[in-house]
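Give me C-alpha coordinates for this 387-residue protein.
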Amino acid sequence: MKDYANLYKNELLNEVLPFWEKYSLDEEYGGYFTCLTPKGEVYDTDKFVWLQARQVWMFATLYQQVAQKQEWKEITTLGADFLENYGRDTAGDWYFSLNRKGQPLIQPYNIFSDCFAAMAFGKFYEIDPQEKYATIAKTTFEHILKRQQHPKGKYDKSVPGTRPMQNFALPMILCNLSLELEPLLGSEKVSEVTDNVIDLVMNTFYDDATGLVLENVSHTGEFVDSFEGRLLNPGHAIEAMWFIMNLGIRKNDTALINKAEKLMFQQLEHGWDPEYGGILYFMDRKGHPPQQLEHDQKLWWVHLETLVALAKTYAYNQNPKAAEWFKKVHDYTWSHFRDIENGGEWFGYLNREGKVHLNLKGGKWKGCFHVPRALLEIWKTLENSSL
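Here you go.
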Protein backbone atom coordinates (compact mmCIF):
# COMPACT_ATOMS: atom_id res chain seq x y z
CA MET A 1 0.00 0.00 0.00
CA LYS A 2 1.27 3.41 -0.92
CA ASP A 3 0.73 4.71 2.65
CA TYR A 4 3.18 2.18 4.08
CA ALA A 5 5.68 2.72 1.28
CA ASN A 6 5.59 6.48 1.78
CA LEU A 7 5.86 6.12 5.55
CA TYR A 8 9.02 4.01 5.31
CA LYS A 9 10.47 6.24 2.58
CA ASN A 10 9.93 9.39 4.65
CA GLU A 11 11.42 7.79 7.77
CA LEU A 12 14.51 6.76 5.82
CA LEU A 13 15.17 10.00 3.96
CA ASN A 14 14.00 12.59 6.48
CA GLU A 15 14.73 11.03 9.89
CA VAL A 16 17.25 8.17 9.93
CA LEU A 17 19.76 9.11 7.24
CA PRO A 18 20.15 12.74 8.38
CA PHE A 19 21.12 11.44 11.85
CA TRP A 20 24.04 9.43 10.46
CA GLU A 21 25.00 12.14 7.98
CA LYS A 22 25.18 14.74 10.75
CA TYR A 23 26.78 12.81 13.61
CA SER A 24 28.71 9.77 12.39
CA LEU A 25 31.33 11.17 10.04
CA ASP A 26 34.90 11.38 11.31
CA GLU A 27 36.24 14.06 9.01
CA GLU A 28 39.59 14.16 10.80
CA TYR A 29 40.69 10.52 10.67
CA GLY A 30 38.21 8.95 8.27
CA GLY A 31 35.56 6.31 8.80
CA TYR A 32 32.55 6.65 11.03
CA PHE A 33 31.59 7.03 14.66
CA THR A 34 28.97 4.46 15.62
CA CYS A 35 28.78 4.94 19.40
CA LEU A 36 26.16 7.68 19.51
CA THR A 37 23.69 8.89 22.14
CA PRO A 38 20.06 9.72 21.30
CA LYS A 39 21.18 13.28 20.57
CA GLY A 40 24.08 12.20 18.37
CA GLU A 41 26.89 12.74 20.86
CA VAL A 42 29.91 10.47 20.40
CA TYR A 43 30.51 8.47 23.59
CA ASP A 44 33.26 6.15 22.28
CA THR A 45 35.57 6.59 19.28
CA ASP A 46 36.61 2.97 18.63
CA LYS A 47 35.72 1.76 15.15
CA PHE A 48 34.29 -1.68 14.55
CA VAL A 49 35.20 -2.98 11.11
CA TRP A 50 31.94 -4.72 10.32
CA LEU A 51 29.98 -1.56 11.22
CA GLN A 52 32.32 0.61 9.14
CA ALA A 53 31.78 -1.74 6.20
CA ARG A 54 28.02 -1.85 6.68
CA GLN A 55 27.84 1.94 6.48
CA VAL A 56 29.97 1.96 3.33
CA TRP A 57 27.57 -0.55 1.77
CA MET A 58 24.52 1.41 2.94
CA PHE A 59 25.50 4.74 1.41
CA ALA A 60 26.78 3.12 -1.79
CA THR A 61 23.42 1.36 -2.09
CA LEU A 62 21.53 4.60 -1.53
CA TYR A 63 23.65 6.30 -4.20
CA GLN A 64 22.95 3.44 -6.60
CA GLN A 65 19.25 2.83 -5.90
CA VAL A 66 17.79 6.11 -4.64
CA ALA A 67 19.68 9.14 -5.95
CA GLN A 68 23.19 9.92 -7.17
CA LYS A 69 23.82 12.51 -4.49
CA GLN A 70 27.44 13.57 -4.35
CA GLU A 71 27.37 13.77 -0.56
CA TRP A 72 26.35 10.10 -0.34
CA LYS A 73 29.27 9.10 -2.53
CA GLU A 74 31.61 11.20 -0.39
CA ILE A 75 30.34 9.49 2.77
CA THR A 76 30.90 6.11 1.12
CA THR A 77 34.43 7.07 0.13
CA LEU A 78 35.21 8.33 3.65
CA GLY A 79 34.59 4.86 5.04
CA ALA A 80 36.03 2.86 2.15
CA ASP A 81 39.34 4.75 2.23
CA PHE A 82 39.62 4.19 5.99
CA LEU A 83 38.97 0.46 5.61
CA GLU A 84 41.34 0.12 2.67
CA ASN A 85 44.13 1.81 4.62
CA TYR A 86 43.68 0.22 8.04
CA GLY A 87 41.14 -2.60 8.03
CA ARG A 88 43.24 -5.71 7.18
CA ASP A 89 46.18 -7.59 8.61
CA THR A 90 49.12 -8.69 6.43
CA ALA A 91 47.29 -11.91 5.49
CA GLY A 92 44.32 -9.95 4.16
CA ASP A 93 41.93 -10.82 7.01
CA TRP A 94 39.86 -8.00 8.46
CA TYR A 95 40.33 -6.88 12.05
CA PHE A 96 37.36 -6.77 14.40
CA SER A 97 38.06 -3.29 15.73
CA LEU A 98 40.41 -0.32 15.40
CA ASN A 99 40.99 2.80 17.42
CA ARG A 100 39.90 6.14 16.04
CA LYS A 101 43.11 6.60 14.02
CA GLY A 102 42.92 3.11 12.52
CA GLN A 103 45.38 1.24 14.71
CA PRO A 104 44.20 -2.36 15.28
CA LEU A 105 42.66 -3.25 18.63
CA ILE A 106 41.17 -6.73 18.21
CA GLN A 107 42.51 -9.46 15.93
CA PRO A 108 40.55 -10.73 12.89
CA TYR A 109 38.77 -13.52 14.76
CA ASN A 110 35.32 -12.59 13.46
CA ILE A 111 34.63 -13.65 9.87
CA PHE A 112 31.71 -11.25 9.67
CA SER A 113 34.16 -8.36 9.42
CA ASP A 114 35.30 -10.02 6.19
CA CYS A 115 31.75 -10.68 5.01
CA PHE A 116 30.68 -7.07 5.31
CA ALA A 117 33.98 -5.75 3.94
CA ALA A 118 33.44 -7.86 0.82
CA MET A 119 29.87 -6.60 0.55
CA ALA A 120 30.98 -2.99 1.03
CA PHE A 121 33.72 -3.01 -1.60
CA GLY A 122 31.58 -4.97 -4.03
CA LYS A 123 28.91 -2.30 -3.86
CA PHE A 124 31.46 0.53 -3.86
CA TYR A 125 32.92 -0.87 -7.07
CA GLU A 126 29.48 -0.63 -8.67
CA ILE A 127 29.35 3.14 -8.07
CA ASP A 128 33.10 3.81 -8.45
CA PRO A 129 34.46 1.09 -10.77
CA GLN A 130 38.13 1.17 -9.83
CA GLU A 131 39.67 -2.27 -10.20
CA LYS A 132 41.25 -2.14 -6.73
CA TYR A 133 37.80 -2.18 -5.13
CA ALA A 134 36.76 -5.22 -7.15
CA THR A 135 40.00 -6.95 -6.16
CA ILE A 136 39.42 -6.28 -2.46
CA ALA A 137 35.88 -7.66 -2.68
CA LYS A 138 36.79 -10.81 -4.63
CA THR A 139 39.94 -11.57 -2.62
CA THR A 140 38.04 -11.17 0.64
CA PHE A 141 35.26 -13.43 -0.61
CA GLU A 142 37.77 -16.15 -1.47
CA HIS A 143 39.27 -15.82 2.03
CA ILE A 144 35.79 -16.32 3.49
CA LEU A 145 35.24 -19.50 1.49
CA LYS A 146 38.61 -20.87 2.60
CA ARG A 147 37.68 -20.23 6.26
CA GLN A 148 34.14 -21.54 5.87
CA GLN A 149 34.69 -24.83 7.72
CA HIS A 150 36.63 -23.21 10.57
CA PRO A 151 35.62 -19.52 10.61
CA LYS A 152 37.53 -18.42 13.72
CA GLY A 153 40.70 -20.31 12.82
CA LYS A 154 43.42 -19.95 15.45
CA TYR A 155 41.16 -17.67 17.49
CA ASP A 156 38.66 -20.47 18.21
CA LYS A 157 38.44 -21.12 21.98
CA SER A 158 36.73 -24.53 21.73
CA VAL A 159 38.67 -27.75 22.19
CA PRO A 160 38.81 -29.58 18.84
CA GLY A 161 37.03 -32.89 18.49
CA THR A 162 34.92 -33.06 21.65
CA ARG A 163 31.73 -31.51 20.32
CA PRO A 164 32.32 -30.22 16.79
CA MET A 165 29.46 -28.01 15.65
CA GLN A 166 28.57 -25.77 12.76
CA ASN A 167 26.81 -22.42 13.13
CA PHE A 168 23.91 -21.02 11.13
CA ALA A 169 25.17 -17.46 10.75
CA LEU A 170 27.79 -17.89 8.02
CA PRO A 171 25.64 -19.95 5.61
CA MET A 172 22.87 -17.40 6.17
CA ILE A 173 25.18 -14.47 5.38
CA LEU A 174 26.59 -16.24 2.32
CA CYS A 175 23.08 -16.49 0.87
CA ASN A 176 22.92 -12.70 0.74
CA LEU A 177 26.59 -11.90 0.24
CA SER A 178 26.90 -14.13 -2.84
CA LEU A 179 23.90 -12.47 -4.43
CA GLU A 180 25.26 -9.02 -3.59
CA LEU A 181 28.55 -9.88 -5.29
CA GLU A 182 27.07 -11.51 -8.40
CA PRO A 183 28.12 -8.61 -10.67
CA LEU A 184 31.74 -9.42 -9.70
CA LEU A 185 31.59 -13.17 -9.18
CA GLY A 186 29.40 -14.15 -12.13
CA SER A 187 26.27 -16.30 -12.10
CA GLU A 188 28.09 -19.64 -12.22
CA LYS A 189 30.11 -18.95 -9.06
CA VAL A 190 27.06 -17.59 -7.25
CA SER A 191 25.04 -20.69 -8.13
CA GLU A 192 27.85 -22.94 -6.95
CA VAL A 193 28.06 -21.24 -3.55
CA THR A 194 24.36 -20.65 -2.97
CA ASP A 195 23.19 -24.14 -3.92
CA ASN A 196 25.29 -25.44 -1.05
CA VAL A 197 24.27 -22.82 1.52
CA ILE A 198 20.57 -23.04 0.58
CA ASP A 199 20.70 -26.73 1.43
CA LEU A 200 22.39 -25.97 4.74
CA VAL A 201 19.92 -23.24 5.72
CA MET A 202 16.75 -24.99 4.57
CA ASN A 203 17.59 -28.59 5.46
CA THR A 204 20.62 -29.09 7.70
CA PHE A 205 19.68 -26.43 10.26
CA TYR A 206 15.95 -27.07 9.97
CA ASP A 207 14.59 -29.26 12.76
CA ASP A 208 11.75 -31.36 11.33
CA ALA A 209 10.51 -32.37 14.76
CA THR A 210 9.67 -28.81 15.79
CA GLY A 211 9.55 -26.84 12.53
CA LEU A 212 12.24 -24.54 13.90
CA VAL A 213 15.64 -23.43 12.60
CA LEU A 214 18.53 -24.21 14.95
CA GLU A 215 21.51 -21.90 15.46
CA ASN A 216 23.96 -24.78 15.84
CA VAL A 217 24.03 -28.41 14.74
CA SER A 218 26.69 -31.11 14.76
CA HIS A 219 29.17 -31.27 11.88
CA THR A 220 27.04 -34.05 10.43
CA GLY A 221 23.84 -31.97 10.75
CA GLU A 222 22.35 -33.60 13.84
CA PHE A 223 20.67 -32.05 16.86
CA VAL A 224 22.98 -31.74 19.89
CA ASP A 225 21.24 -31.58 23.27
CA SER A 226 23.31 -28.78 24.83
CA PHE A 227 22.98 -25.03 25.39
CA GLU A 228 24.40 -24.35 21.92
CA GLY A 229 22.48 -27.16 20.23
CA ARG A 230 19.12 -26.12 21.68
CA LEU A 231 19.63 -22.45 20.83
CA LEU A 232 17.06 -20.66 18.68
CA ASN A 233 17.40 -17.14 17.31
CA PRO A 234 14.05 -16.36 15.63
CA GLY A 235 15.31 -13.11 14.11
CA HIS A 236 18.27 -14.78 12.44
CA ALA A 237 16.07 -17.47 10.94
CA ILE A 238 13.48 -14.97 9.70
CA GLU A 239 16.13 -12.72 8.14
CA ALA A 240 17.59 -15.76 6.38
CA MET A 241 14.21 -16.51 4.84
CA TRP A 242 14.05 -13.22 2.94
CA PHE A 243 17.55 -13.92 1.66
CA ILE A 244 16.27 -17.31 0.50
CA MET A 245 13.23 -15.68 -1.11
CA ASN A 246 15.56 -13.45 -3.13
CA LEU A 247 17.54 -16.51 -4.23
CA GLY A 248 14.31 -18.32 -5.09
CA ILE A 249 13.29 -15.42 -7.32
CA ARG A 250 16.74 -15.46 -8.94
CA LYS A 251 16.41 -19.22 -9.58
CA ASN A 252 12.75 -18.95 -10.59
CA ASP A 253 12.09 -21.61 -7.96
CA THR A 254 8.54 -21.20 -6.63
CA ALA A 255 8.85 -24.20 -4.33
CA LEU A 256 11.89 -22.68 -2.61
CA ILE A 257 10.10 -19.35 -2.13
CA ASN A 258 7.05 -21.08 -0.70
CA LYS A 259 9.18 -23.15 1.68
CA ALA A 260 10.99 -20.01 2.85
CA GLU A 261 7.62 -18.38 3.50
CA LYS A 262 6.43 -21.39 5.49
CA LEU A 263 9.58 -21.48 7.63
CA MET A 264 9.42 -17.73 8.18
CA PHE A 265 5.92 -17.96 9.63
CA GLN A 266 6.91 -20.90 11.82
CA GLN A 267 9.78 -18.96 13.38
CA LEU A 268 7.67 -15.82 13.80
CA GLU A 269 4.77 -17.60 15.46
CA HIS A 270 7.10 -19.44 17.82
CA GLY A 271 9.18 -16.35 18.64
CA TRP A 272 6.33 -13.90 19.27
CA ASP A 273 5.93 -13.00 22.94
CA PRO A 274 2.27 -13.67 23.79
CA GLU A 275 2.42 -11.66 27.01
CA TYR A 276 4.14 -8.42 26.03
CA GLY A 277 4.28 -8.56 22.25
CA GLY A 278 7.38 -8.38 20.11
CA ILE A 279 9.82 -11.13 19.14
CA LEU A 280 12.09 -12.73 21.72
CA TYR A 281 15.82 -12.61 21.05
CA PHE A 282 16.92 -16.13 22.04
CA MET A 283 14.93 -19.24 22.88
CA ASP A 284 15.61 -22.86 23.75
CA ARG A 285 14.32 -25.67 21.53
CA LYS A 286 13.10 -27.60 24.57
CA GLY A 287 11.87 -24.60 26.52
CA HIS A 288 14.75 -24.63 28.99
CA PRO A 289 16.35 -21.37 30.20
CA PRO A 290 18.79 -20.15 27.52
CA GLN A 291 22.32 -19.33 28.63
CA GLN A 292 22.12 -15.81 27.17
CA LEU A 293 21.05 -13.40 29.90
CA GLU A 294 19.61 -11.09 27.22
CA HIS A 295 17.39 -13.85 25.83
CA ASP A 296 14.08 -12.08 26.50
CA GLN A 297 15.11 -8.66 25.21
CA LYS A 298 13.48 -7.22 22.10
CA LEU A 299 16.01 -6.05 19.50
CA TRP A 300 15.59 -3.57 16.66
CA TRP A 301 17.10 -5.69 13.91
CA VAL A 302 14.93 -8.71 14.69
CA HIS A 303 11.73 -6.75 14.18
CA LEU A 304 12.93 -4.81 11.15
CA GLU A 305 14.20 -7.91 9.34
CA THR A 306 10.86 -9.58 10.10
CA LEU A 307 9.06 -6.65 8.48
CA VAL A 308 11.26 -7.03 5.39
CA ALA A 309 10.44 -10.75 5.18
CA LEU A 310 6.71 -10.10 5.58
CA ALA A 311 6.72 -7.31 2.99
CA LYS A 312 8.51 -9.53 0.48
CA THR A 313 6.13 -12.41 1.19
CA TYR A 314 3.10 -10.24 0.58
CA ALA A 315 4.53 -8.60 -2.52
CA TYR A 316 5.32 -12.02 -4.00
CA ASN A 317 2.01 -13.80 -3.49
CA GLN A 318 -0.43 -11.36 -1.80
CA ASN A 319 -0.80 -13.72 1.16
CA PRO A 320 -3.32 -12.11 3.57
CA LYS A 321 -1.52 -13.78 6.50
CA ALA A 322 1.56 -11.74 5.60
CA ALA A 323 -0.53 -8.56 5.60
CA GLU A 324 -1.95 -9.37 9.04
CA TRP A 325 1.44 -10.11 10.54
CA PHE A 326 3.04 -7.09 8.85
CA LYS A 327 0.55 -4.74 10.51
CA LYS A 328 1.02 -6.47 13.87
CA VAL A 329 4.83 -6.32 13.78
CA HIS A 330 4.78 -2.82 12.27
CA ASP A 331 2.59 -1.48 15.08
CA TYR A 332 4.86 -2.96 17.75
CA THR A 333 8.08 -1.84 16.05
CA TRP A 334 7.08 1.72 15.30
CA SER A 335 5.57 2.29 18.74
CA HIS A 336 8.56 0.93 20.68
CA PHE A 337 11.83 1.44 18.79
CA ARG A 338 11.36 4.89 17.28
CA ASP A 339 12.62 7.81 19.35
CA ILE A 340 9.63 10.11 19.55
CA GLU A 341 11.47 12.74 21.60
CA ASN A 342 14.66 13.17 19.55
CA GLY A 343 13.78 11.66 16.17
CA GLY A 344 16.52 10.33 13.92
CA GLU A 345 17.89 6.83 14.31
CA TRP A 346 15.94 4.26 16.35
CA PHE A 347 16.65 2.69 19.72
CA GLY A 348 18.05 -0.82 19.53
CA TYR A 349 17.46 -2.62 22.80
CA LEU A 350 14.24 -3.03 24.77
CA ASN A 351 13.54 -5.15 27.81
CA ARG A 352 10.89 -7.83 27.60
CA GLU A 353 8.13 -5.38 28.58
CA GLY A 354 9.11 -3.13 25.66
CA LYS A 355 10.82 -0.33 27.57
CA VAL A 356 14.11 1.10 26.30
CA HIS A 357 16.88 -0.97 27.88
CA LEU A 358 19.97 0.82 26.50
CA ASN A 359 19.73 4.53 25.82
CA LEU A 360 21.86 4.58 22.69
CA LYS A 361 21.42 4.99 18.96
CA GLY A 362 24.60 3.14 18.01
CA GLY A 363 27.41 1.22 19.64
CA LYS A 364 29.67 -1.80 19.24
CA TRP A 365 26.97 -3.91 17.60
CA LYS A 366 24.54 -1.34 16.18
CA GLY A 367 25.43 1.03 13.36
CA CYS A 368 24.05 2.52 10.17
CA PHE A 369 22.65 -0.66 8.67
CA HIS A 370 19.58 -2.58 9.86
CA VAL A 371 17.27 0.42 10.28
CA PRO A 372 18.07 2.17 6.97
CA ARG A 373 18.39 -1.09 5.01
CA ALA A 374 15.01 -2.31 6.24
CA LEU A 375 13.34 1.04 5.56
CA LEU A 376 14.76 1.01 2.04
CA GLU A 377 13.81 -2.62 1.37
CA ILE A 378 10.26 -2.18 2.66
CA TRP A 379 9.74 1.09 0.82
CA LYS A 380 10.87 -0.37 -2.50
CA THR A 381 9.04 -3.67 -1.94
CA LEU A 382 5.70 -2.12 -1.03
CA GLU A 383 5.79 0.74 -3.51
CA ASN A 384 3.87 -1.23 -6.09
CA SER A 385 1.96 -3.64 -3.82
CA SER A 386 -1.54 -3.30 -2.40
CA LEU A 387 -0.75 -4.13 1.22
